[in-house]
Amino acid sequence: MRHEEVRALQLMRVEALLERARATNEFYRPRLRDVGAIRSLEEFAARVPTVEKADFVADQEADPPYGRRHAHALALREPLLVATTSGTTGQGVEIHAQTASELAGTEACYAYLYRWAGLERGDALFLGLPITMMAGGQLELAGAEAYGLTVFPGGSYDARRKVELMRRFEPSCVLANTSYLGRLAALLDGEAWPGLKSLISGGESAGRSWLRRLESLWGVPVHDRYGSSQAGTDHMLSCRTGRMLHNDDSHVLVEVVDPDTGRHVLDGEEGELVITNLYRLDTPLIRCRIGDRAVYREPAYCGCGIPFMGVETATIARADDMKKVKNVNVWPQAVDDVVFGFDFVSEYEVVLTTSDEGADVATVRVAPRRVLAAGDAGALAAALRDRVGITFQVEATGPGELTFEDTKSRRWRDLRAHVVAAATAS
Ligand SMILES: [Zn+2]
Predict the structure, then answer these.
(1) What are 44-59's pLDDT values in tens digits?
(2) 299 alpha carbon – ligand 1 mean position (Å)
(3) Ligand 1 mean position to 236 CA, how many Å?
């Protein structure tokens, strides 16, 4: 399929989606009232307003617990897959449900992703995500079962038990959050098994150096995945070249827009992700601002032949992840990329504090693989200054001090006086 044919298919699906949302969805109906007929995806982007977390939370508060956007789906009396968000942004937890018939679309989406990760029916997947009320875990499990994988749902065990299970069952693929794959590799200590084909990372941002590090630790390709509770599926995965994450354009429409102008950015430019699910007609998601940013890439950028757009590998980050340090905008991902570029680093954390004079102090605390040589700390500080633009102190931690047993890493601790004071006041 050529990219123009993909776009034509998307337009057809968008038209059907808008028509159904107008007819059945009380949440979207007022938002679509003045939109009129849509003749192109450009018109769709220009005329249809975006929705975001605050809209979903307000909807749920007005009509608990699901909100009016789920009223039609509930009336269908179909079984639902219900997921909540984690609420890490402190703005309340969103609920996102999908009906059993919509789940078929989600499963078709996962079929693309697992195929891109080199998996075939009958392969075994070790699922390192716990099965909870969150979307992550439930969705990957549903997708894997539908695709025909044997699933080991090991996410709720501690890391040692996970490793024990992997050694026993020798899965074809391990799927876990990106930082956690490093934790598992440390416990495996270079051991792998012949049937391992690939890893699937995701769930948090990471730099290229970290992804390359994972590939060398495990000896197999790493495919980074992207999805959201709002989309109700993972829909992007990095292909065999590793250059970009391709989006499953047949199921999900991804726009990458300049947050100031609302215009779609050009190939190689960074923007905010706006997501429309093309197959969920009972519980629609139309032009949702997810709160993530990434560098947009056209299909041709990759060269692997997949005709789907996407984003450059290792450029996805939460829009609110950016830190202002010493009056400079710092993306944690850039720091991550530099730090893991040094082989002597096994793990690290960044601690932000305030000096007696009231200035920001940024310290990188490194868990080294070996005793640091004389120039190591200086070389790391210089590389950080070059790339990030501020000076970091570099310290070594004691053995076992940084483990990140948590399923998502918490590599940044902001203990600056103004941040701590604000947290206490609220
Ligand atoms: Zn590709």
Answers:
(1) 999 999 999 999 999 9
(2) 7
(3) 11
